[in-house]
Amino acid sequence: GENVEQHPSTLSVQEGDSAVIKCTYSDSASNYFPWYKQELGKRPQLIIDIRSNVGEKKDQRIAVTLNKTAKHFSLHITETQPEDSAVYFCAASPSSNTGKLIFGQGTTLQVKP
Amino acid sequence: DGGITQSPKYLFRKEGQNVTLSCEQNLNHDAMYWYRQDPGQGLRLIYYSQIVNDFQKGDIAEGYSVSREKKESFPLTVTSAQKNPTAFYLCASSQMGGSEAFFGQGTRLTVV
């Protein structure tokens, strides 16, 4: 069935360092890959997304890369700040075009001042 | 003020009771979803609906039921058949065809 694997489950970095979170997906026809940030006790919010016709997308300190052949995509955060501390989820939209998202297990990012 | 609203924020259920979680959106989105969030397991899909009066089971539908009588509303009932209902429940909506999902603020359900 449809599956998304996310690693690592926890990540601790020093302020100013970069953080990388990786995800793999099973449905080769998936065409939409969003990343969500969830702060403690709050709702997940979209921070960046990428579609299957694009290999890389950047928005200020965050970027996402997509390798369709290998079926994996990654989130890159540069110059991390304490307010980047949160749980990050990757997701993939399967080919069935229902709009539903299959989520990874989440990565808890801690940025130490 | 456009958005997606869940209520209540906290809900307590006694063993053997059914409870209903509310989800309303005014974003004019066709699709709506219910996810369950447990620590370390990400968001797991319970049910989703693409149009009024139609819905499909997600990965963990057992012990849950939904209805979609109006485009704006997608309530979730947690039945007594759900053996481990304590969790954080998130409702979301989106346009069809792979696009951003907007989430409600969640309902934390606890069995007492």
Structural write-up:
The complex is a heterodimer of chains A (about 110) and B (about 110). In chain A, a hairpin with a 2-residue loop joins β6 and β7. Chain A starts with a strand and ends with a strand. Helix content of chain A is about 0%, strand content about 55%. Chain A is globular, with a radius of gyration of 14 Å. With about 110 residues, chain A is mainly β. Helix content of chain B is about 0%, strand content about 50%. Chain B has no helices and eleven strands. In chain B, strands 2, 4, 5, 6, 9, 10 and 11 form a seven-stranded mixed β-sheet that branches. Chain B has a four-stranded antiparallel β-sheet with strand order 1-3-8-7, with no helix packed on it. The interface between A and B is medium-sized, with 25 and 28 residues.
Task: Write a concise synopsis of the structure shown.
Chain A is mainly β.
Short key terms for the protein model shown above:
heterodimer, A: 113 residues, mainly beta, six-stranded mixed β-sheet, five-stranded antiparallel β-sheet, 11 strands, 0% helix, globular, B: 112 residues, seven-stranded mixed β-sheet, four-stranded antiparallel β-sheet, 50% strand
